[in-house]
Specification:
Length: about 250
């Protein structure tokens, strides 16, 4: 898809079986607390992607394929990308895993939003992010730690990649020419080839809640309004009001 250089491992070690480095030994530490099966891949949404569904595909890419440049997420009309990623339960999110390249098209900044499914490119600028991360321009997979206290109840994550290193350089130069080492569209395209997460998964309790309802309420049990089991049942099921009325109306 991309004409850019993606040197997967520029260092010159051997991949042969006679003592060369084997990437399989990278898997064990990286896969500890790896969140993958708990992602709702079919519900991932990405705005401003050149190829439809490419945002979901880089999240669906397994850790063992993280060095593969394809599939790749490439922004369309400018350098911004907005991704919404829901989970099947509640996550204590620890870190963000991502890979781009040592190229000006690598994303430089990402704003993260907790449990927001209502953001577009207009709304995201009016909302304070839960956390903002500064990313690196590198061929290596980045494991970027999060402030864990902010992410203990993560049910979905929205990521706003605001720009790339070419755009950042243009802002510094003030001439719109970038750093001069690549093509003319450096500041207009942001590229990302892998996105993953580390954390602790807490499944949502999908078991039915057993509530005992009164077949024939006894007035003697309801002399004091708003107290006792009547209020408890009403508050837990109906969201307020007298317990008997909420129970009978269910």
């Amino acid at each position: 898809m991309s004409g850019h250089c993606h040197d997967e491992h520029s260092h010159s070690h051997s991949h042969s079986h006679d003592g060369g480095h084997d990437h399989s030994d990278d898997l064990t530490p990286a896969l500890q607390n790896h969140i993958y099966q708990q992602i709702e891949f079919d519900s991932i949404m990405t705005l401003n992607e050149t190829v439809p569904n490419s945002g979901a595909l880089i999240v669906k890419k397994p850790w063992s394929d993280r060095l593969n440049p394809d599939p790749e997420l490439v922004s369309d009309t400018d350098a911004e990308l907005l991704m919404y990623i829901p989970f099947t339960g509640q996550i204590k999110l620890h870190s963000l895993l991502l890979r781009s390249s040592d190229h000006p098209s690598a994303p430089s900044t990402v704003h993260l939003f907790l449990n927001r499914d209502d953001l577009d490119f207009n709304a995201v600028r009016d909302v304070a992010p839960t956390q903002t991360l500064q990313l690196s321009r590198t061929n290596e997979t980045q494991d970027v730690p999060l402030k864990r206290a902010l992410w203990n109840t993560t049910r979905s994550l929205t990521l706003f990649f605001e720009g790339n290193f070419a755009a950042s350089q243009q802002d510094q130069d003030g001439d719109g020419d970038g750093d001069g080492e690549e093509g003319e569209d450096d500041g207009e395209k942001t590229r990302l080839s892998y996105l993953g997460f580390k954390g602790e998964f807490m499944p949502l309790n999908r078991e039915p809640v057993n509530v005992l309802y009164e077949a024939a309420p006894n007035p003697a049990d309801h002399k004091i309004r708003g107290t006792g089991i009547g209020r408890g049942v009403g508050s837990g099921v109906g969201g307020g009001g007298a317990g008997g009325a909420n129970a009978e109306g269910m």
